[in-house]
Amino acid sequence: DRNGQGALFLRNDSGDIVAEIFSDSTDENVALVLRQSLAPGTNNRAVLWVDPGGQPHLDLRNDDNLNRASMFVDDSEQGRIRLGNAGGNAVIEMRSDEDQRPHLELRDRSGDTLRAELAVTQRLPHLTLFSGQGDQRAVLELDDNVQGRLTVSDSNGVERAMLGIRQDRSPELVLRPSSSVFLLQERARLDLDDEERGRLQLRSDADRVVVEVGTDPGSEAQHPAVRLFERDPPPDELEPKAVLAVGEAGNGELALRSSHNNGTSVLLSAQQGEMASLRLRDGGELERLALAVSGTGQGSLVITGSEGGGSDETRVELAVDDEDSGFLHLHAGSNEQTVAAESIPGAPDHGRLRVALQGTTAGLLQASPTAFPITGARGGHLVLYRVSENQQGDTANFPTILLDGRTGNIFKSGFNAFLIDHPKDPNLAINYVSLEGRQADIYARETITLDQGEARWEPPDDWSMLVRPESITVHCTPNSVDAAGVAIVSRSPSAIEIRALRGGSDSFDVDCLAFGTRNDIDLVQTIRPRADFAGLEQLSPKQDQDGRGDSRGDSGSTMGQIPLGQAPGAEASPIPIDPA
After folding, report:
1. How many CA atoms lie within 13 A of 540 on its CB side?
2. Distance CA 43, CA 46 (A)
3. Among the listed residues 416, 412, 408, 387, the one whose alpha carbon sits nearest the alpha carbon of residue 400
4. Helix count and strand count (H, E) for the chain
5. What pTM, to 2 d.p., does this model score?
6. Cβ-Cβ contacts under 8 Å for 376 (sequence gap 6 or more)
């Protein structure tokens, strides 16, 4: 050419220059250019050239003459390959650094920000991902033990998560906090335990394990378990405080441990034969309360005692029996049943309450709504008993009071009494007892005045409405020493006519007392067959041990002399009792 530089042109059939070899006149660099069109310098599609530093280049270009691919040797005599986008920006570069270590770099569309780098350092490969600001966010690499590891960092460059292989070849996932104060501490770890079983651990800011999800260490079947620990426990209390696990029988359970002695205090599980149960334990891990649902769907609550420091005998039992009826049993210290609220065997729709004396099978109280022979109808009744020994030395219960809920009648072997304070001496009391008779009698009394030997007494309406007319008896006492006496000439519930004896015409006061039997209840059958009282055991007799009778006197009650529960016609044998 005019500058004295040689050139070689190759043309196609149309005479277009499609290839050119030339030497630059300034730097004396040689270039090989492959074109697509006629005009030189435009639409170069491939250029093989040498830069001023003497380094060779191969560029592949698009229609706009922008580099889409370049292969060259850099100033460090290391080979490089660059791939550009439609804008001519290098977004992918393959190179080797000064130490001849290979690199593969991926950049954003502008080609200015590195987003990913695949490289080899210390003979170990690693892949690094960067944020839009060029901050390192994730690294996939081999560590010094040639084990795979993935680390993830936040925008401050702090490593927050690590997934890797430990030196013992077991995998682990570690999560760390963002605070620089706890930079080296772990917050979560997913790995394998010493027995090659999966485990997830969560740690507190004191770098202590507070939650562990894995398998139960004591389970041969490797059942799953979640264990909760104290945040900062004493050195001698490293056991979990709560364990949610699957038991050996395959049932779920939750165990809570006491900080007192680290023993299990609460156990929510489903033991053998149960659907579910909640058990509360004391410091010695003895069960004190058990709330359960049986395999047949029946619920129960059992509370045990602590007498003697180690007893686990039942004290309270609330459950459902085989007839699907609820019952409540209270037990004494010797595990003997003292109180029972339950349905009656064979009659599950009827309930009863029984109270027994500790140390015996005898009852002190029984209440139940059953058909009772005394009333001949269905109604609730309450029976109170006295416990004593019979001639054979056996302890038995003897009914002393029966309350008939349907009629309101009271049957008893003793007397009715009331106790009031002594009005003059605070150290004394007044104890009165009521009269008893063959029928349920009521009375009315009043002081009336005879006018010329005659008087008409009209008792109160409430008495008149309740009394049987045929049962009325009247007793009158004149309040005059001159009176010869009075007589009752007629009587009815509403009026009683009184006259002075022997036609007397004096006027004086008379104290009148009228008795009669209640008309709202049946007449009392004073002598009854023993069979009428079947269902009660016995009423206590009124004899003491020497057979002389109760020193307090006979109350007059026939119930106290009838040993109930015997067959009709059976001979009644008195049972001596302790007078106390």
Report:
1. 32
2. 9
3. 412
4. 1, 41
5. 0.53
6. none
